[in-house]
Design a protein that fits this description.
heterodimer, A: mainly alpha, 8 strands, B: Rossmann fold
Chain lengths: 320, 439
């Protein structure tokens, strides 16, 4: 009985002594932590995606406190987080325009056929390194999903047609997929942008048509519809300079159907549904007919106008 | 003398019996040859004959594009039809000279150096370079470059590679049997150019007739003939040096760093022909075999002959063919169609049935360590492949991934069928890309 009591009291004594030591130690060796660090950690998403370019979310929080990181550098956090950071750090912030990643290729297996059987490992980089990949188009999406493996937010999925699609709602703009793609197909676009050229093949029209039925040939017809369509050589692109929305006729005017209009179709349908393509082609044909009729009308009206020397107002008068 | 070997390696099924006893048969030159202008490692050759011009057999049609480059010669006489991109053996289109054969085989006048024992070394080297001789084992490194080591790296030994360790291939075997004297003379020329003290021929013991033939041909010379164990990759440069001389080539180094130059048996014959007869490299001996080939054999083929022509000659029907490989089954290149030409580096053409070329899905690594035991470079393939999966390329570099020569022994041995060598190849490409970025 007594030996038991001795044991208990000795153990309790040791416990007390240690607790005292710890209590003293905590005071003596206390590390000053900026209370704002905890506040920041509470608001930062905590996905450790690396989108800010710093080692993890705590790295970003420390960099914010040190003043070496910008308050709008966290893509998953977006505008809300930027405002929160501004509140915590007591600084003026400007909210960045949210961006999402976009796979700029719509040439699935039916549009850009497979030219060779690929038995290698499931990695776009390996397939690309092997004689330029197994697809007819050496610039198009291989669809093996190196970007899917790189995405921390589960925002990328394969389509039925051998491509990949990024869900703009899930995409946070961390850019990890951009680095993973060996063909540099993925690019950041403003989230509010509705019209995209889904092709990056810079080759001449003949070469593009030889490998893909929906590739951009650089014919510049879309450029006539809207000044926001700009051209890098034989490749069209939507410029980000102006803020005015694009006329839907830009997509309809493309003879190759390389321009995707998010107001008309869902991206998943556009990439892999034959019905959607058919629907689009019917609309494009109708638009072209209307355009032809309008032009023919304009031409008829032109000769007398020439004499009147008022060419600028001719179009408005013809089309009601 | 017991057979020598290196550490590691594997014993694949060799399948050499079907063709090893068949004498080399010359294939008539085709109606049209497609000669790629880049058949070697290094700068592509520059075309020097205009389309429409008449060419003779052995006439230079493209000149060397630099020091590490080799000229290309016509393999038939006739008319140069065009110089245009055609599908190449590596899967990408390459610039090719298309020559229509007039069937006369009018040859360019050539002159050899009969007394090569007294001729100047520079002349011999020049002769080899102008005849477009490249390594004929498959790597196609220009031979004159290999025969010009820097002065601070003296060469004491030349090793002639008669291992032919790739399964199915028997072309070098037939060269050693049928062109023994030419091959040995070629080795003597190489030894003289390099001023090497020793010359060694290494032959795997599964070619006893070749061993005997080469031994008797070398009896009156001071060339040493050594039997090698039957093992893949016995013919790898570094493995051969390890087996024959017990020397280790340092990581990232070349055989010349340990005073050795290795040449293939076919290359030695090409060197002999270039020097003694001034004959350019416009034909080569190769093996056509595989389960889809009813009449396999060893053939003397003009460079630029379409592979499809050879397959037809051997009775292969396209619908039975599941897989076509140029080179050996371990390190050769799978082709998507037969419309590619035979090049200087094509050591074999293998056609397999669909049933034999199934790719089975990989399973998880069970840590058995067979790949580690198999690796002839003494790397840890499973570790490097894991680095590939997790995209830890700097870790893979620390594990000496760049020393991998992509022999495929690890993938061959893996019981879980993990594509180890494919993953290591990806790792190597990523490391090189990162190096280029920082440079």
């Amino acid at each position: 009985m007594t030996s038991m009591l001795i044991a208990i009291s000795v153990l309790c004594g040791i416990g007390l002594a240690m607790a005292l030591l710890l209590a003293v130690g905590k005071r003596a060796f206390a590390v000053e932590v900026d209370p704002r660090f905890e506040q920041l950690m509470d608001v930062i998403p905590g996905a450790n995606c690396g989108g800010c370019g710093l080692p993890g979310c705590s790295g970003y929080a420390s960099a914010l406190l040190a003043g070496t990181a910008a308050p709008d550098a966290c893509p998953p956090g977006g505008a809300e987080l930027t405002m929160e950071i501004g509140r915590i750090l007591g600084m003026e912030v400007t909210v960045r325009e949210p961006e999402v990643a976009l796979v700029r290729c719509a040439g699935g297996n039916s549009e850009s056929p497979i030219r060779a059987r690929y038995d290698g490992i499931d990695d776009c980089r390996a397939a690309h390194a092997l004689a330029g990949g197994f697809k007819s188009c050496t610039h198009g999406c291989l669809g093996l999903g190196s970007c899917i493996a790189a995405c921390t937010f589960n925002a990328i999925e394969r389509t039925a047609n051998g491509l990949v699609r990024i869900d703009p709602e899930r995409c946070t703009g961390c850019r990890n997929c951009i680095a993973a793609c060996p063909r540099h197909i993925i690019a950041m676009v403003p989230k509010k942008e509705v019209v995209h050229v889904l092709c990056i093949n810079p080759d001449k029209a003949k070469d593009v048509k030889a490998v893909c039925t929906v590739g951009c040939t650089g014919c510049k017809i879309c450029g006539k519809q809207s000044p926001r369509m700009v051209f890098d050589g034989a490749l069209a692109r939507v410029s980000t300079d102006a803020n005015d929305p694009l006329d839907p006729s830009v997509a309809l005017s493309c003879p190759q159907g390389s321009i995707y209009d998010a107001r008309e179709y869902r991206l998943s349908d556009w990439l892999s549904s034959a019905d959607t393509r058919k629907h689009f082609e019917e609309r494009a044909a109708a638009w072209k007919e209307a355009e032809k009729a309008r032009k023919a009308g304009a031409r008829k009206e032109k000769p007398p106008k020439k004499d009147d020397d008022q060419p600028a107002s001719s179009q408005q008068e013809v089309t009601p | 003398m017991s057979a020598l070997t290196f550490a590691g390696g594997i014993h694949p099924a060799y399948h050499k019996d079907r063709t090893s006893g068949l004498a080399v048969q010359a294939i008539p030159a085709p109606q049209e040859v497609i000669i790629p202008l880049s058949q070697h490692i290094g700068a592509p050759a520059k075309a020097c004959v205009e389309p429409g011009a008449a060419v003779k057999v052995g006439q230079m049609i493209a000149e060397s594009g630099g020091f590490v480059s080799a000229p290309v010669h016509s393999s038939v006489s006739g008319t140069m039809k065009a110089i245009e991109p055609r599908p190449g053996p590596m899967g990408v289109p390459v610039l090719c000279a298309i020559i229509e054969n007039d069937g006369t085989d009018a040859a360019e006048d050539t002159a050899g150096t009969a007394d090569w024992k007294t001729a100047s070394v520079a002349d011999l080297r020049q002769k080899i370079q102008s005849c477009g001789v490249v390594g004929m084992g498959g790597a196609t490194f220009p031979t004159h470059v290999k025969l010009s080591p820097p002065p601070n790296k003296p060469i004491d030994t030349v090793i002639l590679n008669g291992a032919e360790c790739e399964p199915f291939l028997t072309a070098d075997h037939r060269i050693m049997l049928e062109h023994t004297a030419a091959m040995v003379e070629g080795l003597q020329i190489i030894t003289r150019i390099l001023d090497a003290k020793h010359a060694v021929v290494g032959i795997e013991v599964n070619k006893p007739d070749a061993l005997d033939a080469v031994r008797s041909a070398c009896a009156s010379t001071d060339i040493r003939v050594v039997p090698l164990q039957i093992k893949y990759p016995q013919g790898g440069e570094k493995q051969l040096i390890s087996a024959v001389l017990r020397r280790e080539v340092p990581s990232g180094g070349l055989p010349m760093d340990v005073g050795v130059v290795v040449q293939n048996a076919g290359t030695a014959r090409a060197v002999q022909q270039a020097v003694t007869a001034g004959r350019p490299l416009y034909e080569r001996i190769l093996t056509v075999t595989g389960s889809a080939v009813p009449e396999p054999g060893n053939f003397l083929v003009r460079i630029g002959t379409p592979v499809a022509t050879l397959l037809t000659h051997c009775g292969v029907s396209a619908d039975r063919m599941g897989r076509l490989i140029l080179g050996g089954p371990m390190m050769g290149f799978a082709q998507r169609h037969a419309d590619v030409p035979v090049t200087k580096g094509t050591s074999g053409i293998l056609a397999f049935l669909e049933t034999e070329s199934a790719i089975l899905p990989p399973m998880a690594c069970i840590r058995c360590g067979r790949c580690v035991r198999a690796c002839p470079m003494r790397l840890v393939p499973s570790q490097i492949a894991a680095c590939c999966d997790h995209r830890l390329f700097s870790h893979a570099r620390a594990a000496d991934a760049m020393d991998c020569m992509e022999c495929g022994s690890c993938a061959h041995e893996c019981p879980s069928r993990i594509p180890l060598v494919q993953k290591i190849r990806l790792v190597k490409a990523e490391i090189l890309a990162a190096r280029r970025k920082t440079a």
